[in-house]
Design goal:
The structure holds 3 protein chains of 3 kinds. By secondary structure, chain A is α/β, with parallel strands linked by helices. Chain A contains 10 helices and 9 strands. The relative contact order of chain A is 0.17. Classes of the chains: A alpha/beta, B alpha/beta, C mainly alpha. Chains in contact: A-B, A-C, B-C. Strand 1 of chain B pairs antiparallel with strand 1 of chain C.
Chain lengths: 253, 510, 263
C-alpha cells in the first residue's frame, strides 16, 4: 500500500482532477467489517455525498480519508497522497468539519480560530487575515469573543465550518453538518454549504436525503460497509423509494 | 478488558496500602493483602493478554507493522531510559548541596587559626562503617581550606601505638597537634575543635574579677543555676579569673581588665558601693547582670552613669510562652543596636532572656556614648507588678504602659580625666547561667560584652555553633516566619483561589 | 506561529481557562505552606526546648543529632508533599488526552499539520510547565522563610529539585494513563493507582525475594526521590525521572498508533 501510494504521489498531476480515490478500501474492527472493499472516485471541484444509515460505514470511510484510521486493506488517496504515509500533504489540502460537539467549549471563538489556523501552518499576518475573513464569511462577528460552549448549536456549527476553511483547502469533508440542529439552524448551515459549491471539492457525509439532494451532484450510498449505490444525485435519489437504498440494495451505478 | 486492568491496579494499590498500614500490628501477609495482591496481578495479566489478543485479531499484516513499529518505539524508549539511568549511575556524578558542604567556619575559628605562628595538624581516626566521619571530613576540608590546618586520616587500628599515645578511644576522633602538644577531640565539631585549639594556644587575654559573697551567681557551681559555664568560657578565651569578695573590704585593683558582677541578691553594703563608684570613676570596667525585684545598690551606681533601670519586668508578647511561664516574660530578642558587642547578631541570631528588666538611657555628659545593645520587640512593655513572673496567665498591659523597643542590654563609654570608663549592663542574669548560656547566641553576647569592656574589641566574634551531620540546628525566628506565612504562605493560595473563582464566574457568564 | 506553538497556546488557554487548574494550584500551595510552617514551628519548639533545658558546653552536644532542619523539616515535608502530589497531579493530567478523545476533538487535531509526536510533545510540555508553576507556588514561602533565616537555601533547592522531578514523573504517568483512556475518571484513577503502586516496594520485602525487590526498587518512585531531601543530588536519580518521562512519552505516542489500528 505504502509503495503504491508513494508512487502515486508524483503521479498526482496525471490523475488530473481526482480529489479522492478509494480502491478496494476495507476496514475491519475485530470480526466486524465496517467498510468492505469500497472503490470510488471523487473528482476535483465536485460536491459529493456519502449517504447511509447510522453504522453504514460513512464515518469510518471519512476517518480513513483523513488518516485518523488506517485501512485493513485497499488504498485511499487524497490528491494522489496516501493519508497513512503522507499525512502532511493530505492535511494541507484538507478541511474537516466534525459534528457540532467536537469543539473546545472552554475556548473563545476567535482564539479557537487562531489555534485552528496556526495548527494548519498559517502565521502572523496570514493567520490574522484568515481568521478575520472566516469570522466575516461565517457571520461570527457578534460572538467572536464568546466561549464556544456558550454558543447555540447553529453558531457552533458555523465555528466548525469556519475553522475548516481557514487555510483555503482544496477538499472539505463535512460530517453530519445539520445533525442536532433545529430547522432554522439547519437552513442556515445548508445555505452556507450551498454557497461553497463549485469553489472546491466537497464531501458531505449525511443521512439526510434532502440535504444530499440540495447540496451534492453525485452520491454514494453505503449499507453495512458496502457500496449500495453510486451515481448522479438525481438518479440515485430520484427513485420512488430512495430509502430502500439505506436498507440494502446492491450498487448499480 | 481495560476495566479489568483498572480494577486490578486498584486491587494492588489496596493490597499494598493495607499491608503498609497494618504491618506494624501484623507482620504477616493476611488473606486481605494476599487476595488483593494476587487478584490484582492476575487481573492485570488477563487484561494485558486480552488486549494483545484483541490487537492480534483486529490487526491485518499491514497494521501489525504499524503496531510493531510503535511498540519498538516504546521498547526503544525503555532501553534509552535504562541506558540513561545506568550511564548516570556509572558516572557516579552527584552534587552535594548539603549544609555541611556549605559550611563556613566561624569567625572565631578563623581568627584563632590566623593568630597561630605554625600550622595545626589535625588527624582523623575513623572506622569505615562510621557514618559520622562524613561530616567530620567536611569540617576538616573547611579547616584545611584556611591553609592553617594540615589534615590527615587514619583508619582506626592501623597504628595502635599512635592511638595509645594520643588517647584515641573511638572512631571519629580528631587529634589536634600544635608543636609537641596535642588535644584529642572525641566528638569533632567546629566547637570542640575551637576549644582544643584555644587550650593548645594558652593565651593571656587579661584579668577578670568576678564578684562573690552577696548572693551573686556562683561561678563554681556546675548545676543549671550555676555560672561555671561562663567561667569556663572566659578561661578558654584566655582570661585569668579571680574571685572578688566585696565584703572583705579589699579594693578593686586598677589592673583589672573587667569586673563581672552576676546578679547580687541582697543590698550591697555602702562601703562596697563606694568602692565600685571609686573604681568606675577611675576608668573602671564593669559588666553587671541585674535581676528584676532586686535593689542591690548597683542599679543606683549605674544610674549615675546614665543607665537607669526601673524595677519592672519586661513583657514581650512577641515571644510567647516558654517552659510554662507566663507568656512574654522570657523575651527572645532579635533586635540589636549598632554596637561592637552585638556585631553579627541579627534576626536569625537571637538571644534569650528569662525574666528581665529594662533600661532608660540618659547621658550624664554630652560627650558620653550610650547604646541600647539588645532590644525587645516593639510590642514589649514594662510591668511594674513583679508578680507576673510568678503567674502563668498572660500579663495584662495597663493603659499607662508604653509599648516600645525596650532595651535589655545597654552599654556606656565615658571619657574622664582618670581614664575611659566602660559599663555594660544586662537586664537579666539567667541568660548567662549554665542552663541558658549555650542557648542561641547568649554565650557570644556575654563574652563579647566582656571583650568590649576589657577593650579587647579584636576578640569580639561569634563562636562556632554545635553542628551535626546533615543538618542546621539554628533556630529560625518564628516571628519572621509567621510574617512570611501570612504574607505568602497563606496569601498566595488565597489569591490563586480568587483567580480560580474569577475564571469560573467569567466562564459562566461569557 | 508554527502548528506546535499554536497547540501549546491552545493547551495553555484550555488549562488556565478552567477553574480546576487554580484549585489544584491553591491546594498544592496551601498544603505545602501548612506542612512546612507546621514542621518549622515544631522544629523551633524542639530546638528551643533542648537548647534551654540542657546544660551546654563545647564538650557536649547540647542538642540531639536528630534535631536539625533536614530531619525535622526537609525530610517530613518532602515525604508528605511527595505523597500529596500522587493525589493532586492526576487531577491535572486526567483531562489532557482523555478529554480530547471523549469530545472527539482529537479527530480535529490529527487532521491539522500536527504530527502525533508534536501533539504529545506539546501536551507534555504544557503539563510540565504547569507542574513547574505548581511546585514554584508551593516553594515561594519555604524559600523565603529559609532565606530569612540565612539557612540552607541550597539544601532547599535540592528538596525542590526532587519534588519537581517527582512531580514530572507523576505527571508523565498521568499523561500516559490519560492517553490510553477515553474518560477522565478512568485516567485519574489509573494514574492514582499507578502512583501508589510505584511509590515504594519496600513493604513487599517480607515476602518477595531480594532480587525481585531490588528490581522493583529500581523502578519505584520513592527510593529515587528521597535522596533529594538529604541535600545530595545524584545524577542517576535525575536520570531515573527523565527515563520515566521518556517511557511515558513513548507510551502516549504509541496510543496514537494503537488508535489508528484498533480504532
Amino acid at each position: 500500500m505504502t509503495n503504491e501510494q508513494a508512487a502515486a504521489g508524483p503521479g498526482r498531476a496525471a490523475n488530473g482532477g481526482v480529489a479522492v480515490e478509494a480502491r478496494e478500501l476495507t476496514r475491519r474492527f475485530g470480526s466486524h467489517t465496517a467498510l468492505d472493499a469500497i472503490s470510488l472516485r471523487v473528482e476535483s471541484g465536485e460536491a459529493f455525498g456519502l449517504l447511509g444509515a447510522n453504522g453504514a460505514g460513512k464515518t469510518t470511510f471519512m476517518r480513513l480519508v483523513t488518516g485518523y484510521l488506517l485501512p485493513s486493506s485497499g488504498t485511499v488517496a487524497v490528491g494522489g497522497f496516501a493519508p497513512a504515509t503522507h499525512a502532511a500533504e493530505v492535511h494541507a489540502r484538507l478541511g474537516f468539519v466534525a459534528e457540532t460537539s467536537r469543539l473546545y467549549p472552554d475556548l473563545r471563538v476567535a482564539g479557537f480560530l487562531r489555534f485552528a489556523g496556526g495548527a494548519r501552518g498559517l502565521t502572523k499576518g496570514a493567520l490574522a487575515a484568515a481568521v478575520e475573513s472566516a469570522i466575516e464569511r461565517f457571520h461570527l462577528g457578534g460572538v467572536a469573543s464568546r466561549l464556544i460552549g456558550h454558543l447555540s448549536k447553529g453558531f457552533q456549527q458555523r465555528v466548525s465550518l469556519a475553522q475548516a476553511f481557514l487555510h483555503d483547502p482544496a477538499l472539505v469533508i463535512v460530517d453530519e453538518p445539520t445533525s442536532g440542529l433545529d430547522p432554522i439552524q439547519q437552513e442556515e448551515v445548508r445555505g452556507i454549504l450551498a454557497g461553497l459549491r463549485g469553489t472546491r471539492t466537497l464531501i458531505l457525509c449525511t443521512h439526510d436525503l434532502t440535504e444530499a439532494r440540495d447540496l451534492t451532484r453525485r452520491v454514494a450510498v453505503l449499507h453495512r460497509g458496502k457500496l449500495a449505490a453510486m451515481g448522479p444525485t438525481p438518479e440515485v435519489l430520484g427513485g420512488e423509494d430512495p430509502l430502500s437504498l439505506f436498507r440494502g440494495r446492491e450498487a448499480s451505478a | 478488558m481495560r476495566e479489568v486492568g483498572l480494577l486490578g491496579l486498584v486491587a494492588i494499590a489496596f493490597g499494598a496500602g493495607s499491608y503498609v498500614a497494618t504491618r506494624d500490628a501484623n507482620q504477616s501477609l493476611t488473606w486481605f493483602h494476599a487476595l488483593n495482591l494476587a487478584g490484582g496481578s492476575l487481573a492485570l495479566l488477563v487484561a494485558a493478554l486480552a488486549s494483545l489478543g484483541r490487537l492480534r485479531a483486529a490487526a491485518q499484516p499491514g497494521l501489525r507493522a504499524v503496531l510493531g513499529r510503535g511498540l519498538l518505539g516504546v521498547l526503544g524508549a525503555v532501553a534509552l531510559a535504562v541506558g540513561l539511568e545506568r550511564a548516570a549511575h556509572w558516572s557516579g556524578l552527584e552534587f552535594d548541596w548539603t549544609l555541611e558542604r556549605l559550611y563556613v567556619l566561624s569567625e572565631a575559628t578563623e581568627m584563632g587559626l590566623a593568630e597561630l605562628d605554625e600550622p595545626v595538624r589535625a588527624t582523623l581516626y575513623y572506622d569505615e562503617e562510621d557514618p559520622r566521619a562524613r561530616s567530620t571530613r567536611l569540617l576538616l576540608r573547611a579547616l584545611a581550606a584556611t591553609g592553617r590546618v594540615e589534615t590527615a586520616e587514619k583508619k582506626l587500628g592501623a597504628s595502635p601505638e599512635e592511638e595509645d599515645r594520643f588517647e584515641v578511644g573511638s572512631s571519629n576522633t580528631v587529634v589536634v597537634r600544635l608543636g609537641d602538644r596535642f588535644e584529642s577531640v572525641a566528638r569533632p565539631t567546629e566547637g570542640t575543635f575551637y576549644e582544643a585549639l584555644y587550650r593548645l594556644r594558652s593565651l593571656d587575654s587579661g584579668l577578670v574579677y568576678m564578684a562573690r559573697g552577696t548572693g551573686e551567681g556562683d561561678i563554681e557551681r556546675t548545676a543549671d543555676d550555676g555560672f561555671s559555664g561562663l567561667a569556663q568560657a572566659l578561661l578558654t578565651e584566655g582570661y585569668r579569673i579571680r574571685s572578688f569578695v566585696p565584703a572583705q573590704g579589699t579594693p578593686i585593683p586598677p589592673e583589672v581588665d573587667a569586673l563581672v558582677w552576676l546578679a547580687p541578691r541582697r543590698r550591697l553594703p555602702e562601703t562596697t558601693l563606694a568602692e565600685v563608684r571609686r573604681y568606675l570613676a577611675g576608668g573602671g570596667r564593669l559588666v553587671v547582670f541585674l535581676e528584676p525585684g532586686v535593689e542591690s545598690g548597683l542599679e543606683e551606681v549605674i544610674a549615675e552613669w546614665g543607665l537607669r533601670s526601673p524595677d519592672a519586668v519586661l513583657v514581650d508578647p512577641a515571644s510567647g510562652r516558654m517552659d510554662g511561664d507566663a507568656p512574654g516574660v522570657n523575651p527572645l530578642a532579635f533586635h540589636y543596636g549598632s554596637h561592637p558587642i552585638s556585631r553579627g547578631l541579627g534576626a536569625s541570631r537571637m538571644t534569650f532572656f528569662r525574666g528581665a528588666r529594662s533600661f532608660e538611657l540618659r547621658k550624664p555628659e554630652v560627650e558620653d556614648d550610650l547604646w541600647s545593645v539588645v532590644l525587645a520587640s516593639s510590642r514589649s512593655w514594662l510591668a511594674e507588678d513583679l508578680e507576673v513572673l510568678e503567674r502563668r496567665s498572660p500579663p495584662l498591659r495597663p493603659a499607662s504602659a508604653r509599648s516600645d523597643y525596650h532595651p535589655l542590654v545597654v552599654a556606656g563609654r565615658y571619657q574622664r580625666e582618670a581614664g575611659e570608663t566602660r559599663i555594660v549592663a544586662f537586664g537579666d542574669a539567667d541568660l548567662a547561667s549554665n542552663r541558658h548560656l549555650r542557648t542561641l547566641y547568649n554565650l557570644d553576647l556575654t563574652l563579647n560584652a566582656v571583650h568590649w569592656v576589657a577593650s579587647r574589641e579584636p576578640a569580639i566574634k561569634l563562636l562556632p555553633k554545635a553542628r551535626v551531620a546533615g543538618g542546621d540546628q539554628f533556630a529560625l525566628p518564628i516571628q519572621n516566619t509567621l510574617t512570611r506565612f501570612y504574607g505568602l504562605g497563606l496569601l498566595l493560595p488565597e489569591l490563586l483561589l480568587m483567580a480560580g473563582a474569577l475564571v469560573w464566574v467569567r466562564t459562566r457568564s461569557a | 506561529m508554527t502548528p506546535f506553538w499554536a497547540l501549546v497556546r491552545k493547551e495553555l488557554a484550555v488549562l488556565f481557562g478552567s477553574p480546576l487548574a487554580y484549585v489544584v494550584l491553591t491546594l498544592v500551595a496551601l498544603v505545602s505552606s501548612l506542612i512546612f510552617f507546621d514542621h518549622l514551628r515544631i522544629y523551633n519548639q524542639i530546638l528551643f526546648v533542648f537548647a534551654s533545658t540542657t546544660m551546654g558546653g563545647f564538650e557536649t552536644d547540647t542538642i540531639p543529632d536528630y534535631v536539625n532542619l533536614r530531619d525535622q523539616v526537609f525530610f517530613p515535608v518532602m515525604e508528605n508533599l511527595g505523597f500529596v502530589l500522587i493525589l493532586l497531579v492526576p487531577m491535572i493530567t486526567m483531562r489532557i488526552f482523555a478529554e480530547e478523545r471523549s469530545r472527539g476533538t482529537d479527530e480535529l487535531l490529527v487532521t491539522t499539520l500536527l504530527t502525533p509526536s508534536q501533539i504529545v510533545l506539546a501536551k507534555f510540555a504544557v503539563t510540565f510547565a504547569f507542574v513547574a508553576l505548581m511546585m514554584a507556588a508551593s516553594f515561594v514561602y519555604p524559600a523565603l522563610a529559609i532565606r530569612e533565616g540565612g539557612l540552607g537555601l541550597e539544601h532547599l533547592l535540592a528538596v525542590f529539585l526532587g519534588l519537581l522531578f517527582h512531580a514530572f514523573g507523576l505527571a508523565a504517568l498521568g499523561l500516559a494513563c490519560s492517553a490510553f483512556s477515553r474518560t477522565q475518571l478512568v485516567a485519574a484513577v489509573g494514574a492514582l493507582a499507578l502512583g501508589f503502586v510505584l511509590w515504594d516496594f519496600s513493604w513487599a520485602s517480607g515476602f518477595l525475594s531480594e532480587g525481585v525487590i531490588r528490581f522493583l526498587e529500581g523502578i519505584a518512585l520513592h527510593p529515587h526521590y528521597r535522596f533529594f531531601a538529604e541535600g545530595v543530588v545524584i545524577l542517576s536519580h535525575l536520570a531515573y525521572f527523565v527515563g520515566l518521562v521518556i517511557v511515558c512519552f513513548a507510551l502516549a505516542r504509541f496510543s496514537y498508533d494503537l488508535r489508528r489500528v484498533a480504532g
